[in-house]
Specification:
The chain is built from 14 helices and 15 strands. It has 397 residues and is an alpha/beta fold. It folds into two domains: 8-172, Phosphoglycerate kinase, N-terminal domain (Rossmann fold, 3-Layer(aba) Sandwich); 179-381, Rossmann fold (3-Layer(aba) Sandwich). The strands form three sheets. It has a six-stranded parallel beta sheet. The longest helix is centred in the first third of the chain and has 15 residues, at 38-52. The protein starts with 16 loop residues before the first strand and ends in a 7-residue tail after the last helix.
């Protein structure tokens, strides 16, 4: 993880063409209407600052997974329309993302205006890191700005490829993300408490390994908790378990004891006789009987986790405590969410499900930093260097 990331103040943007990678991968309904414009709004401060410095701003983004084909449902016309409304500036939306016609349109654009390129993933070479495509993007700008944290873990043409060819810096959103995770992973106020949930241990095993070297306490919930409990010899009934990882989980448990890290697991559960909202459900002690599955942490575990979170000076949370989409199995995630929101320390939440849960519970405004990139934030928690950040250099290559 880059601690020092060059930002907008490091380059002169006046009169320049600024190619900026944004993450406008917004959800659309069946009619092609944007249902959540959070990602567009998140980029507005950087957009306004660049335009205010007298630059021509060229925006590049992907939308959906067109897999290198031009698909009408993934064109960026709805994004352009919403951006015009939110930014209050002219936005010229193009029908391609590179080539002679695009270069001509960018050359003709006036300072203070925005050019939005078509979906970069219509190009087959985008996700493959095609150097010729990266060079084609580079011809559209004098300076590159990465403000797309959500794609910065991808070594793709419009993310890292073009950054290696132009003087390149981070936008304000990307800088906020880097600073938030620096405060968690490099220089936290202690105690540092991490909360991990979600379905599978395999999705977060590297995160567990990395965090055990950094945290004071690690609280585990969700489906991944049952593999840990099975490794300790507890009955887990029909709960989700990855038996091939039992020895690996035992090693993580031993590492936690060796490091003096409190690794907290559920001591009671909300169980059901089927994975369904209308299933028979009840509270249960630590051992789950056959024919039943754990779908949420129980009331004693909620109280214990909330108490530990309340005493933290830094908290990072990734992953729900149960099947929060079903109201009957939401109490654990709600208890953790409210505890994180009430924590007097510095709080960071990442991962799509955790962020969605905060929105559902109306708690988003009470979190210090909500990450805009689930996969990218997870890779930072794994201790990885993100290609889209590592490639930034104010001097170019």
């Amino acid at each position: 993880m880059a601690v020092e990331t060059p930002g907008l103040d490091a380059v002169d943007l006046a009169g320049k063409r600024v190619l900026m990678r944004v993450d406008f991968n917004v959800p659309l309904d069946a009619a092609g209407r944007i249902t959540d414009d959070t990602r567009i709004r998140a980029a507005l401060p950087t957009i306004a600052e660049i335009l205010g410095k007298g630059a021509v701003l060229v925006l590049a983004t992907h939308l959906g997974r067109p897999k290198g084909e031009v698909r009408p449902e993934f064109r960026l016309d709805p994004v352009a329309a919403r951006l015009r409304e939110l930014a209050g500036v002219p936005v010229q939306k193009l029908d391609a993302s590179c080539g002679p016609e695009v270069e001509a349109a960018v050359a003709a654009a006036q300072p203070g205006t925005v050019v939005l390129l078509e979906n970069v993933r219509f190009n087959p070479g985008e996700t493959k890191g095609d150097p010729e495509l990266a060079a084609a993007y580079a011809r559209l700008g004098d300076v590159f700005v990465n403000d797309a944290f959500g794609t910065s873990h991808r070594d793709q043409c419009s993310v890292a490829g073009v950054a290696r060819l132009l003087p390149s810096v981070a936008g304000r959103l990307l800088q906020k993300e880097v600073e938030a995770f620096r405060r968690v992973l490099t220089d936290p106020e202690r105690p540092l408490v991490a909360i991990l949930g979600g379905a599978k241990v395999s999705d977060k095993l590297t995160v567990v390994e990395n965090l055990l070297d950094k945290v004071d306490a690690l609280l585990i919930g969700g489906g991944m908790a049952y593999t840990f409990l099975a490794a300790q010899g507890h009955g887990i009934g029909d709960s989700l378990v990855e038996r091939e990882l039992l020895d690996t989980v035992r090693a993580a448990d031993a590492k936690a004891r060796e490091r003096g890290v409190d690794l907290l697991l559920p001591t009671d559960h909300v169980i059901a006789d089927a994975f369904a909202a209308d299933a028979n459900a009840r509270d249960c002690e630590v051992d789950i009987p056959a024919g039943w599955m754990g779908l949420d942490i129980g009331p004693r575990t909620r109280a214990r986790y909330a108490e530990r979170i309340a005493g933290a000076r830094t908290v990072v949370w990734n992953g729900p405590m149960g099947v929060f989409e079903m109201e009957r199995f939401r109490a654990g995630t709600e208890a953790v969410g409210r505890a994180v929101a009430a924590c007097p320390g510095y709080t960071v939440v990442g991962g799509g499900d955790s962020v969605a849960a905060l929105g559902l519970l109306g708690l988003s405004e009470r979190i210090d930093h909500i990450s805009t990139g689930g996969g990218a934030s997870l890779e930072l928690l794994e201790g990885k260097v993100l290609p889209g950040i590592a490639a930034l250099s104010v001097h170019g290559r």
